[in-house]
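Database export, one record per block. Field names are fixed; values are copied verbatim from the stored entry.
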Amino acid sequence: MAELIKRRLIVLALLVFTGCMAGKVDLLTPITQPRLDNSLVVEKPMEAVWSAAVPALGKEFFVINNLDKASGFINISYAGDPEAYVDCGRIVSYVKNARGERTYDFPGARAEQVYEIMGAGLYFVNRKISIDGRMNLIFEQMSPAQTRVTANVRYIITRSV
């Protein structure tokens, strides 16, 4: 008899506890951007544009892998935090349990985020995301006073959860 009462109390406690648990996870997709032109005409001679671009790129978080002034070619790369460069939407997670209610709302491209989700149980998530990208910049003299700069980009996003 005592065993039956004990089982019923355990089942009742589980029902009460799980009845107080709720959760929801949403991925809010990024706003679609129109396709942008990957080239720009600068109203300056090629020598001036090149001379300004090389030091500017070196001062940023880019690594200059290769450059050839005669052909007007620069290859740069970047590895690290993607949040400033890509839009992966937003992640919103709502959790309610005996410890209270919590809402997590963060950019999907954030380099690292720890949060909770509620599914068949409560899960703690440690999410990491990084970007490895390369860009080819091509400088073309259009006229003695005009230079076209074209950027071709390739990147890979890596996510681990």
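Remark 1: The CA atoms of residues 65 and 97 lie 51 Å apart.
Remark 2: The two ends are 47 Å apart (CA to CA).
End of record.
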